[in-house]
Amino acid sequence: MDQAFIEQLTKSIEIYGFGGAIFLTFVLSAEMLLRRREGKSLWSREGLSSLALFPLGPVLEGVFINAALIGGLTFFYNLSPLRIPVTWWSLPIYFLAAEFAYYWFHRLGHEVRLFWADHSIHHSAETYDFTVNLRHVPFQAIYRLLIWIPIVMLGFNPLVLVLMAITAPAFQTFCHTTRIGRLAPWFEWLFVTPRNHGVHHACNPIYIDKNYGGLLMIWDHVFGTYQAMRDDVPPVYGITHPLESNNPFKVMMHEFTPLFRDFRGAPTWRQKLGVLFGRPGETFEMPRPVKQGSQLVAEPAE
Fold first, then answer.
1. Which residues, in sequence order, are bridge partners of residue 291?
2. Domain-by-domain residue ranges, the chain?
3. Rounded distance, CA 201 to CA 196, Å?
4. Alpha carbon 172 to its chain's center
5. Fewest C-beta atoms under 10 Å: which of 194, 206, 232, 241?
6. CA gyration radius for the chain?
7. In 10 A of CB 165, how many CB atoms?
8. How far apart are CA 227 and CA 204, in angstroms?
9. Residues 85-121: pLDDT tens digits?
């Protein structure tokens, strides 16, 4: 019974994923046409570097990484005697569990410096438009696995959990834009929207490390990380340590390079571990430029 339902669900989500790819193509084409009407080049320089990073998504993540993730989770799932059946009545439970899993893996990508070095690739664009969707990150399956192991050991089928959780980035395709304004208050409160996700991509102090939700903002409200965009605080997009290159390799290594440098430079092993697993900005760091508003200033040495 479960297996037949899972196969039906998998086919439905495959269709959804295919539709998501078509929608991404549509919004990217719309972005290009709108830029042309505005007298701009079809692609910004950041957009071109994002395009170079795009193969990381459909090839590595879409095929190999997600398959490895499901395989790793299945190993731990088989160690547990617990089982939550996959039926129509249990799908809402799976959906909320998948949102919970997405929230915490996403939050871990911001609050652990080693994982932030990876996740910051997606956040490094200072132009917030649909091309940001192309900035995929290569190692996020690692911290997904760490967060999701306890969930599958509670009995959640790993295939269904992963299939549901990876729909969040597809939904967020339309959220990477400033061309859509504020929506209805109830909708902004409940769902991830362009303004809610714009907060997430901003580096203003009030906006940093907020709005981690995938499709819903529910877990942000529960754990106190929700922040509405304020009209008196325009968002400054990008990361606090600015990326001054559009070279795809430099985009990928922008946070890894100082991470390795700080790890070597930390005087004690406790500080070295803090460099890897501490919160960004609260660990041993050698000086480098920091963005404050739209200005660059030198970060003081500790």
1. 296
2. 2-182
3. 9
4. 10
5. 232
6. 20
7. 26
8. 12
9. 888 888 899 999 999 999 999 999 999 999 999 999 8
Q: How far apart are CA 256 and CA 258, in angstroms?
A: 6
What residues contact 123, with CB distance under 8 A and at least 6 apart? 201, 238, 239
CA distance 194 to 27: 13
Q: Is 8 helix (H, G, I), strand (E, B) or coil?
A: helix
DSSP labels, 12-79: HHHHHHHHHHHHHHHHHHHHHHHHHHTT--SS-HHHHHHHHHGGGIIIIIIIIIHHHHHHHHHHHHTT
CB 82 within 8 A of CB 153: yes
- Of the candidates 204, 183, 205, the residue with the CA atom closest to the CA atom of residue 196: 183
Task: For residue 191, list its beta bridge partners.
Answer: 216
Phi, psi dihedral angles at 124 (to 5 degrees):
-75, -15
Portion of the chain with pLDDT greater than 70, in percent: 80
What are 192-225's pLDDT values in tens digits? 999 999 999 999 999 999 999 999 999 999 999 9
